[in-house]
Amino acid sequence: MVPLVLPPTVIGYYLLVGLGSQSWLGQLLENLLGQQLVFHFSGLVVASILVNIPFAIQPIQRAFEAVPEEVRDAGACCGMSPLKVLFRIELPMVWPGVLTALVLCFSHVLGEFGVVLMMGGNIAGETKTIAISIYDSVQAFDFASAGQMSLVLLLFAITALALTTSLSRRLGGMNVSRRR
Amino acid sequence: MSQDVADLYCKIDQQRDIPIDAEFCCSAGEVLAVVGPSGGGKSTLLRMIAGLTKPERGEIRHGDCQWFNSETHQYLSPQQRHLGYVPQHFGLFPNMTALENVVAALDHIPKSQRQSRAKDWLERVNLHGLPDRLPANLSGGQRQRVALARALAREPSILLLDEPFSAVDRETRERLYLELARLKEQLSIPVIMVTHDLNEALLLADRMILISQGKLLQQGTPREVLTRPRNEAVAKQMGLRNMFDAHVVAQEEDRQITWLKFGEHLIASTYFDSLDVGTKVRWVIPNQGIRFNSITKGRLCRSFNKLNITIASTLAMGETMRIVASIKGVKHHLNAEVPLHLAQKLGLAPGMETEVALKSELIHILER
């Protein structure tokens, strides 16, 4: 849960130091993968996963908590193994929560700035994201490009929010009907 | 039905979390009601029998098969116990239709037979024409039926019902009582039903156990427990409000009567052989032992005791009238419930002095 409360620049700094070629972990990964993670697209993927895990865990956890204990009990008494209960009953019940988590994570990754800049730098074609491009355009007084890219991200964010709200309502509705 | 017919024996001794101390047996074909106030450990006891909660110490045995034994560290999972369980809110799988819910419990028979068997069970619990509905689109009573069909479709070794009628309206509940009473005749397995409603136990159970704060207070037929409560705690749990102090004045072994001096009255109760003359006792009488019309109609027979009372207050509640009356020479009041039409016919009203008859065989002396 630490990434939820730490400033992105600080997370980016620690990832840069921790996964850089100066650290034992960075050297180990470089030897294993044949390339260094920092200032590289694969490094951005690793950093995004680490940073966004808490954002994914919370909605998924909430969705599983909303499954009534009685349903699991009934599953066990119907002869189902815990794994069967998970796949046949719980996962179909919690999928809106899981999808909400994925949408949230993806939109968060798309707009990530601090961690991306620290970990990946600003290498065109490799680690330059839309968020960084907006920053570059503003620095170059190219407000037209910055506006267009910002609008794309804004529309994406609104769509993601609408989708997650609708999925949350659907999940909430299922729970209400279950408890009626 | 082809169930494995055997009795269930249960002995639980748990001190931590929710303390439970109970030992009882439920015979095959018998409906045993577990009655007690909320939070008394009834549902926990049921979960222990189901294998959903592991007790600290004790033994749960179905016929010769040990489901749990703390001495031998034997513990069978709910899947291995092969039982039918209907949770309080039915625990239906919300992503499955009524039919799929029942099919989900049929993994013990070949796949090709599951659909038809599930349909048969839905028909047997009178759920016609709704197999494709999701639980969210069923009424409380219909959900209860699906849950019951799912539990019975497994051809379980025992059936466990946790407050099966608490989540449905009164009308549905009355209908379900009849259905369960009919179904009971077809079942040859032990059925354990948790309820906090004493009337349910009186209506449906062959035997009952009374549990309060995890302790088994008394077991027997519902009528036995109601009319012969072991002690004051049981009497209170059974809702008996008429408890009085008296002295034993005579013992008639040949007529099986214990005579009690109660205020200015001398009353005959059922014979209690261990009491000496002069002993102070506490006695109790259920509502059905109090008669208002026997004396005025001149039908007082020898098995009744006459009591002079003055009605202190009346309260009409639906079809009954609650009466609180003072008894001559006695500090405590008499509480009675009389059918409203009878109360009106007899003109029962506050301030009225009248006589009531107490049925001797329903006067019961409590253990000290």
Tell me what the structure shows.
Chain B: Pfam families: ABC_tran. Chain B: Residues 3-238 form the ABC transporter domain. Chain B: Keywords: ATP-binding, Cell membrane, Ion transport, Iron, Iron transport, Membrane, Nucleotide-binding, Transport. The complex is a heterodimer of chains A (180) and B (368). Chain A has a single domain (2-179), classed as MetI-like (MetI-like fold, Orthogonal Bundle), CATH 1.10.3720.10. In chain A, helix 2 (8-19) packs parallel to helix 7 and helix 4 packs across helix 6 (82-111). Helix content of chain A is 80%, strand content 0%. Chain A has nine helices and no strands. Chain A has helices spanning 2-5, 8-19, 24-33, 41-65, 69-77, 82-111, 114-120, 130-139, 143-179. Chain A has 180 residues and is an all-alpha fold. With 368 residues, chain B is α+β, with helices and mostly antiparallel strands. Chain B has two domains: 8-236, Rossmann fold; 240-366, Beta Barrel (OB fold (Dihydrolipoamide Acetyltransferase, E2P)). Chain B has ten helices and 21 strands. Chain B has helices at residues 42-50, 78-81, 98-103, 111-124, 140-153, 170-186, 198-204, 222-227, 232-237, 340-346; strands at 8-14, 20-26, 31-35, 57-62, 65-69, 74-75, 84-86, 159-162, 191-195, 207-212, 215-220, 243-252, 257-262, 265-270, 280-284, 290-291, 304-317, 320-327, 333-339, 353-359, 364-365. In chain B, the strands form four sheets. A six-stranded mixed sheet of chain B has the order 7-8-9-3-10-11, with helices on both faces. In chain B, helix 4 packs across helix 5. Chain B is globular, with a radius of gyration of 24 Å. The A-B interface holds A 68, 70-71, 73-81, 88-89, 92-93, 174, 177-180 and B 47, 50-52, 77-79, 82-85, 87-96, 104-105, 107-108, 135-136, 140, 147, 150-151, 154.
